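re the bet — no i am not wrong, look at it urself. input seq straight from the record:
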Amino acid sequence: MKRILLLIFLLSSGSVFSQDMLGVSNSNFAGTSGTSMNPTSIMLTPSGWEFSLLTLDLSVENNFVGMPKSRIMKAGEQSGQANDKGGLVAYRGSSDKAANAHVMVKIPAIMLKYNDMAFAFHMAVRSDLGVHNVDSKLAGLAYDGMKDPLMSGTMIKGDGLRAGGLVWIESALTVAKQLSRSESRKWLAGASLKYLTPLAGAYAGISDADYTYINDTTMSLSSVKGRLAYSYIENGRDAFKLRCSGIGTDVGVSYISNPFTQKYSNGKPIAMKKYDYRVGVSLIDFGFVYFTRNAHSFKFKTPSVDLNGSQNTQANGAAQLDNAISDAVMNGIGPNRTFIMSLPTSLSVQYDRCLHPRWYLNLTAIQRVPMPMMRVDRANSLSATIRYETPFFEVAFPYSFYDYYRHRIGVAMRFHGFFIGSDKLGTFVGNGDITGADFYLGLKVNSFDFRRKPRAGHHVGCPAYN
């Protein structure tokens, strides 16, 4: 158990997972970069078409371990002082520990608008990890090892512990449509249908368990109930066989109040708001993947388990690991060879107010939806973003309350079709510990005429976006 938990946290801290890209995903120029927040984003952009060359989205966050920046900046001077955890420090608070990670590489992504409809297609490789409800004492054992004599006889509750990870390829078709429009309002609706190829997945969930630490080699578990499953590709060439072993969707609607209507004074256009406000609601990553290749799944319920010598337990290969699990909690019963996992499903609400021409305030809430099966849990988020937006240049400053335990400040910038940003600027500035990282960038080209002045025989782009 110690080895499993420590592996999870070290993986979370060493991987890089921003899932939300708060600095760009709610922009009126987000286009295909905003479909993961709300599919109607492709109807908001003024472009007739868009081709995204690359979107890269990386992020990780946890509340269990951190790395002092001073140790990183002076690694050469302090190399002899690093502890046996590579310089990591643990946070010993009583709150449950959690970690989330996300990697997404999207290439290519294409969008086309036609009258009151828009269509988009993208391919992406994604990896998501979520670890939640880990008791702080159990996390401490994972970090320190079973060597604290003061822990002898300590009972630890393990109810609700969940750890899920998933790697997959998705090919998605997005369709959005303007449902109605008047001078005072506009309704948009959109949906993405995703064809999924899972590459690897793992899940450990304990719905009921009491852990008793006995000594440095023995731990006793009582009333143990839970699920354990994993699958991976044994032959690397199988990763390129895009078998449809899952399906998913994003759906969203948006309401726009007082959409732009150009007004003039003395024959000259007046700077106007694009709208008073817009509100969006979306269901993100609702879907499932079905593992059949090299799949191992256990569902156990046992009154007691004694882990003797667990520090030295080794399992070389899937067969030995299956046998160890079967002997420990399954009374010798082997695993099932198929299992289903849910995507990191969440519900989001977005509110975007135009404060002044080119200035916006965005409020976004993201709440994970606990699917009743093995799953990856997405991080919750509450955010507020101030944004200055023009066709040529954009800058945004997002604040977020990440998973209800971490306050984060970020910054993002866009110049024409290139954007770069982070929802956690503290990783790169300041003197605090590094508990995570967040970074995203993208490059795309589009059809919109952003010229400020007309040339002979050419029109100027829509003044609402200039």
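see?? Helices lie at 2-14, 41-44, 69-73, 75-78, 136-144, 318-329. told u. also Residues 213 and 219 are 5 Å apart (CA to CA). so pay up
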